[in-house]
Structure formats: structure tokens, C-alpha cells
Amino acid sequence: MSTAQVLAQAQETAPATGGTQLIVAALLGIAAIVLLITWLHVHPFLALIAGTGVLGIVGGLGAGSTIESFTDGVGSTVGSVGVLIALGAMIGGLLRDSGGADRVVEAVTRRVGPRGMPWALAGVAALIGLPLFFEVGVVLLVPVVVLVAARTRSSVIAIGIPALAGLSVLHGLVPPHPGPLVAIDALGADLGLTLLFGLVVAIPTVIVAGPLFGRLAARWVPLPPPSESAAAVAGEAGGTRDDDATRPDSGTEPDRATARVATAERTGRDRSGVRVGAAVVVMLTPVVLMLIRAIAEIALPDGNPLRSALEIVGEPIIALLLGVVVAMVTLGLPSGMGRQGLTDSVGGALPAIAGILLIVGAGGGFKQTLVDAGVGTLIGQWASAVALSPLLLGWLVAVAIRVATGSATVATITAAGIVAPLAAGLPPATVALLALAVGAGSLFFSHVNDAGFWLVKEYFGLTVGQTIKSWSVMETVISVVGLLLVLLISVFV
After folding, report:
1. What is the distance in angstroms between the CA of the first residue and the CA of the last residue of the chain?
2. pTM of the model
3. For the CA atoms of the chain, what is the radius of gyration?
């Protein structure tokens, strides 16, 4: 059964019990998730299972129906979203292991002056953020940020905030990242439209929350530029793959050649054969194919042979699979990977996403239980009665859960499940914008209960207060600007 059919069925099915009891059940289920994650530090996968049990039992579904709803939700979510996440991780693994991501960073930072560096790093981070998960992007970019700050005698915050903004915006708003994919699946949104609108929202959001806010954040957190020796230590700690790839100006060509030889001896591969253009093509291939599909569906009539072909290659699973193949041919082989090396690279990318897949799957089960119990239908009726915009409602629910749990993924899953019935009667463009509104809300004010908060704090050597003034406020700016842009687009579509 498709997501749209599930939502339509939920609209026609009477709630499992009275409205007050259902709302209490939903609040207790969410409260159980929040307390288990924040107070007892239980893994979100287990917390979501427990919260689903509370929701189902208190909401009148009964143990058997709750288990059935949860199982159905896990199966449908992992089946539709899990494969895409895995393929995206494989592309990211090949970019990382081949040195392709390093080459892109190196090419940009060598050619840009100090004044343009925040803008350049924001662009590089956004580009790298298309196929890479946020944590991987941070590990790749932090050494670059510290070295650039040392060599240009600039503030780490002024350089680092744009890079973090580029990564975070793409992570929260643009497929094939887990959050946007989950929202698209739960709401039955068109992936091509969501991707198109997501890119339109992402570009100005990165500009405002990145280079522009970075100037202000640098005044709030006046960190002196690091010494080059400290920057070198940061480069080692960051786990960069290629010494010369982390330097904006890494000396003479003989010096760079020597560094590449050392890298080849250390890794067993010579990455000098990897080209910047190839890395950029790999990053953009899935996105371009999905966008072409969306354009073809709008511009070409049904039954047109070209449209049918573009719909096939632009299908998310096909687009990402082609991206993996392109990455193997243009990055893996030139970097010296043989058959076994390619297998090790794509296989090595999968263990890191196991936890994400479990959380996404359990969140899908929680969402389906919300739908089957009739909670979403009641929320939709309430929103209609008070004339509250579905876009604003989705954003507010995601904000509340994000602040409480610290997890953008949990916030996206839960908020999308709650507002899902509203999507059944909305135009496709509005449903796509609803997915983006939920994604924007899931980024609101990262603080001490978010793993990303501590990742940024430790990598940049900040205090808790400095991290709140820079990173946390930046996330809030992204969330609010993203919502405003979504509301603006909704006026014209």
C-alpha cells in the first residue's frame, strides 16, 4: 500500500477512541520518547519503540494492533527510504575514500582570497553536503576551516559558520538526506518538486545563516586566529585523508607532489588521478537526474517517450544507483581502487548508517501508529477549525520536538506523522512545501541534548556558551529563514 493510500485510509477511518484520550495518548507517547532520550540517555531507536507502545495502548489500539501498525510502518519506511539512504552513503564513502571531496575543497580554497573565503567555504560545504552526511562533512571541513583561519589570520567563527551552515541546510532540507526523505515519504510529497523547492530555499538560507550571520557571530565569539602549529594538530585530529588537500596554499608543486607520494605510501592509493570536475559530477548526478525528471513531468505530456525515459532515470533509486556507478568509474578507479577496493569503500559506508536506518525505521513505525490511531486526523480537524496554516503547524510541531529531544530526525519523523493527514487534500506543490517546513523546524536551536552541538563544540574548541552563541543561533536562523522562504513560495504556487 502506498503512503498516499495509507493517509487516505486514515482520513476515512474513525479514531480508535475519544479525541481527548487520543491527544493524551500522543502527548504521553512523545513525552516518553523525550524523557528516555534526554533523561535516561536511551538510544532513540528503543525510545521510539517505547513511545509507540505508550501511544498505542493509551490510544485504544490494543497491543496486537499497535504491534501490527508499528511493524507495517517500519517495513514501509525502510523499504522506501532505507535503500536511498544506503545508496547516498555509498556515494559519500567513495567521495571520501577516493579523495574527491578533498580535491573540491583544495581547488576552491587555493583560488579565493581572504574576503571571499567565507562565501567559498559556504558553497563548498553546500556542494559536499549534497551526498555526505553532516558528521562526515564536519570531519572533512573542520581541518580546512582551521588552516584557512590560520593562514588568512581570520576568525575561526567567521570562516567556520558558513561551512557549518552549508552542511546543515542541505542536511535538513534537500534529499537524499534522511530527514527530507522521511518527510517526503510520510507526507506523500513529490520528490522532484521537494528537491526543486528545497534548492530554491537552501541557497538564500545558506547565504543568510552562513557568510552574513558569520560576521555577526565572529563579534559575539571573538576567537583569535589559531597558529599554524595548532592548525596542523587540528588537521590530524580531523582525520583528513590527504595532507595537501587541507591547505589553501600548500606550497610549491614539488611540495604537493611529495605530499601526494607520502599519501600514496600511507593509504596504498595515489589520489593524484582524481579530478575536481569528476568529483563535482558525482555530487550533482543524482540531484540533476531527479530535477530533470521533475521538469519533464511538468513540461512534457503523458505518454511522451522522452518523458517516460526521464521518469525512469530520475526515479530516486535509479538516480542514486547511477551516482554510485559514476563515482566508482570516475573516482574509485582513478584513485587506484581495484575491485576489492571499490567493494570495501561502498561496504565500509554502510555500518555508519545502521543507527540512522534503525531510528528512521522506528520513527516510521511511530508515525504509522499515529495515523492508525487517528491522532493526525484530529490534529487536522483542529488546524482547520482555527484556520492555522499546515505549513506553520508542521514547523511548530517539529520545533517543539527538536528542542525537546535534540534529534532532527526524530523531530522530522514525528512532526510529519502528526500533520500527515493534512497533506491528503493539499496540492502537490503545497505538500512539497509542507515537507520543507517540517525540515526547517527540525533544525531549530540545537543545544546540549544534540550530538551535533558537542561535535561542533569539540572540533572548534569552543565553550558551551560560545557554541550556543554561534552554532545554536545559526541553526535557529536557518530554521526561521527556511520557514519564511517556504511561506513566501507558497504565495506563488
Report:
1. 29
2. 0.72
3. 23
